[in-house]
Write a structure and sequence with these properties.
single chain; 9 strands; about 25% helix
Length: about 200
């Protein structure tokens, strides 16, 4: 078992990175790899070359091929990200758009329809949010994201929320600690109804 943790937050002192560190520690001594997209300066822009590779199902840009190799080593993929306007950051959206492409993550043709290719990969979503009220995830929306269109075996979503705290004037202060506000949704062959974790 090899877990790829993908973080998408430009602030290394963020709650996202705090959760990333805790998760990495909890998963060890198992095999864990971290992809810090901001630190690695991943380019999320979907270019004409990406469009050609998507349409033709091959000849992927070198940075995309490198991400494919990382994912091919993984049995579990965990996406850890802050929630921006009820969605993931553009950096992570661009990573997904550029990396999970036709010919590698799935194949599509009018004759056979959508054929998933990553059935050995389980995906886990871990959105991080700050709220004055409880954090909610929509089971329906999550299933729409990872259900029929998913190219992976199954998916889990767990939302972590932190109550806002008074900001410190110290730029080196610790990020807010998550409150025990979490919900989980499973998608895929072993999907179960949403339940508090």
């Amino acid at each position: 078992m090899h877990t790829l943790l993908v973080a998408a937050n430009p602030d290394p002192r963020s709650l996202t990175h705090h959760v990333l560190g805790k998760l990495q520690a909890a998963l060890q001594p198992g095999s864990v790899e971290i992809a810090d997209l901001a630190k690695e300066r991943f380019d999320p822009r979907f270019t004409a070359a990406d469009r050609r590779a998507y349409r033709d199902g091959g000849n992927y840009p070198a940075d995309v091929t490198a991400e494919h190799r990382r994912l091919e080593r993984a049995t579990d993929l965990v996406l850890i990200f802050p929630v921006y306007w009820w969605s993931m950051p553009a950096l992570l959206k661009g990573w997904i758009d550029r990396v999970f492409v036709n010919g590698w993550a799935f194949e599509h043709s009018p004759a056979s329809g959508l054929q998933p290719k990553l059935q050995g990969l389980t995906t886990h979503l871990l959105p991080i949010a700050e709220a004055t009220t409880p954090v909610h995830t929509s089971a329906t929306d999550t299933r729409a994201h990872c259900g029929r269109r998913s190219s992976t075996a199954s998916s889990t979503t767990a939302a972590v929320g932190a109550a806002p705290q008074h900001s410190s004037t110290n730029p080196n202060s610790s990020p807010p600690r998550p409150q025990c506000e979490m919900s989980t949704v499973r998608c895929g062959p072993s999907a179960k109804p949403s339940m508090p974790a």
